[in-house]
C-alpha cells in the first residue's frame, strides 16, 4: 500500500497559511506556491541514493558523494501543477518536465484529458506527479494511468493540500504510489472543493475567474 507523508516543516506550514488566506492576491499566492514547492522538493528528495566519488580539494584528495540512481521527471497536471514546477526545478534543475493536461468537469467532477507531452524515456525515470490539489483524486488517478500506460514504472505524487477522499482514492487505484503533502484537510464539500482548502488553485495562480 502506498505511504502518505505530510511535510510539517514550520516554514511550509507558515507559508501555507498565507496561501490559504483569501486575502492573498495572485502575485503573492504564486510566489508562495513556488516557495513551498521548493521546500517540498527538499523533503521529497531526502531518500535519493548517493554514490561515492573521489575528488581533489585544494588541500587533498577526498571521497565525497554525488547523486546516483535514476534520473527524475516532473509531471505537472495542467494547469495548476505548473505553479509548482519552477520551485522544484530550483533544486533539481536536471529533471525533465512532462505535461498532462486535465480539467475537472464541474458537473461530473470527472477528469477530462486534453494534452499529454512526456519525455521519451519516462520508463527509466523516477516521476513526480505534481498538483496543488488532491480533491476527489480523479485527476491524479487519471494522470498516473496516463503515465503507466506509456511505460512509467516509478511514480510519486506531490500535492499541497489533500482531502482524505482523494488520498484514499489514489491509495486504492495506485497502491504503488507514495503521496507527499503539505497538509491533509478535513473533507470535500458538495461541490468537490477541499474544506478548508484554498479555493480554486488554478484560478488563484493565474488570476482567472
Ligand atoms: C484542479 C486541481 C486538480 C484537480 C483536483 O484542477 O488543480 O488538478 O482540480 O480535483 P480532483 O482531485 O477532484 O480531480 P482543475 O480541474 O480545476 O483545472 P485547472 O488546474 O486547469 O484549474
Ligand atoms: N480543485 C481546486 O482547485 N480546489 C479544490 O478545492 C478542489 C479541486
UniProtKB/TrEMBL annotation:
GO terms for biological process: UMP salvage; uracil salvage. It is an enzyme of class 2 (transferase). Allosterically activated by GTP. 5-phospho-alpha-D-ribose 1-diphosphate binds at residues 79, 104, 131-139, 200. Its EC number is 2.4.2.9. GO terms for cellular component: cytoplasm. Catalyzes the conversion of uracil and 5-phospho-alpha-D-ribose 1-diphosphate (PRPP) to UMP and diphosphate. Its cofactor is Mg(2+). Uracil binds at residues 194, 199-201. This is Uracil phosphoribosyltransferase. Pathway: Pyrimidine metabolism; UMP biosynthesis via salvage pathway; UMP from uracil: step 1/1. Belongs to the UPRTase family. Residues 6-208 form the Phosphoribosyltransferase domain. Pfam families: UPRTase. Keywords: Allosteric enzyme, Glycosyltransferase, GTP-binding, Magnesium, Nucleotide-binding, Transferase. PANTHER family: ADENINE PHOSPHORIBOSYLTRANSFERASE (PTHR32315), URACIL PHOSPHORIBOSYLTRANSFERASE, CHLOROPLASTIC (PTHR32315:SF4). GO terms for molecular function: GTP binding; magnesium ion binding; uracil phosphoribosyltransferase activity. Binds 1 Mg(2+) ion per subunit. The magnesium is bound as Mg-PRPP. It catalyses: UMP + diphosphate = 5-phospho-alpha-D-ribose 1-diphosphate + uracil. InterPro entries: PRTase-like, PRTase_dom, Upp_B, UPRT, UPRTase/APRTase.
Amino acid at each position: 500500500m502506498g505511504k502518505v507523508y505530510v511535510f510539517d516543516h514550520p516554514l511550509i506550514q507558515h507559508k501555507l497559511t498565507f496561501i490559504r488566506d483569501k486575502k492573498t492576491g495572485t502575485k503573492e499566492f504564486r510566489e508562495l506556491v513556488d516557495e513551498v514547492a521548493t521546500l517540498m522538493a527538499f523533503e521529497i528528495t531526502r531518500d535519493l541514493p548517493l554514490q561515492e566519488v573521489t575528488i581533489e580539494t585544494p588541500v587533498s584528495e577526498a571521497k565525497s558523494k554525488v547523486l546516483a540512481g535514476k534520473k527524475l521527471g516532473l509531471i505537472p497536471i495542467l494547469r495548476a501543477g505548473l505553479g509548482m514546477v519552477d520551485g522544484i526545478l530550483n533544486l533539481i534543475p536536471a529533471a525533465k518536465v512532462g505535461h498532462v493536461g486535465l480539467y475537472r468537469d464541474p458537473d461530473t467532477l470527472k477528469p477530462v484529458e486534453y494534452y499529454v507531452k512526456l519525455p521519451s524515456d519516462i520508463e527509466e525515470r523516477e516521476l513526480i506527479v505534481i498538483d496543488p490539489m488532491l480533491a476527489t483524486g480523479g485527476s491524479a488517478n487519471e494522470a498516473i494511468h496516463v503515465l503507466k500506460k506509456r511505460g512509467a514504472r516509478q511514480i510519486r505524487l506531490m500535492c499541497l493540500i489533500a482531502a482524505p477522499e482523494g488520498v484514499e482514492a489514489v491509495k486504492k487505484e495506485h497502491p504503488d504510489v507514495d503521496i507527499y503533502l503539505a497538509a491533509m484537510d478535513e473533507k470535500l464539500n458538495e461541490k468537490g472543493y477541499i474544506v478548508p482548502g484554498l479555493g480554486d488553485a488554478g484560478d488563484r495562480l493565474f488570476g482567472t475567474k
